[in-house]
Amino acid sequence: MKQKKIPLRKCTGCGEMKPKKELVRVVKAPDVKDENGQVITKGQVSLDLTGKKPGRGAYVCNNIGCLEKAIKAKRFERAFSTAIPQEVFDGIKEEMENFE
């Protein structure tokens, strides 16, 4: 029987390749557009503990150190091509502390 391939993802904080199940996904939801294609509301950035939310995802290790490295280097803003307010990062940090 063939061995199942384990999907790997790169942590945005430390840059290490790790199995997908060991990492936590940060997701930017899709933008809401009207019938003309104009953006009505921007997608929210949030923590995705299940890995099933729709949108663009970036992965980070399940520790606050890697999350802070990624925030300091603005890697999430680069991954999502948008400016992210500090309040969003504070909420993500709280959720990660509660998850651990």
List the defining traits of the structure above.
100 residues; alpha+beta; Hypothetical Cytosolic Protein, Chain: A; 3-stranded antiparallel beta sheet; two-stranded antiparallel ribbon; 7 strands; 29% helix
Give the SSE layout.
Layout: E1 8-10, E2 17-19, E3 23-28, E4 32-33, E5 39-41, E6 45-48, E7 56-61, H1 64-72, H2 75-80, H3 86-99
Antiparallel strand pairs: 1-2, 3-6, 3-7, 4-5
Q: Can you tell me about this structure?
A:
By secondary structure, the protein is α+β, with helices and mostly antiparallel strands. The protein has one domain: YlxR-like (Hypothetical Cytosolic Protein, Chain: A, 2-Layer Sandwich), CATH 3.30.1230.10. Helix content is 29%, strand content 27%. The chain has helices spanning 64-72, 75-80, 86-99; strands at residues 8-10, 17-19, 23-28, 32-33, 39-41, 45-48, 56-61. The strands form 3 sheets. It has a 3-stranded antiparallel beta sheet with strand order 6-3-7. Strands 1-2 form a two-stranded antiparallel sheet. A two-stranded antiparallel ribbon has the order 4-5. It starts with 7 loop residues before the first strand and ends with a helix.
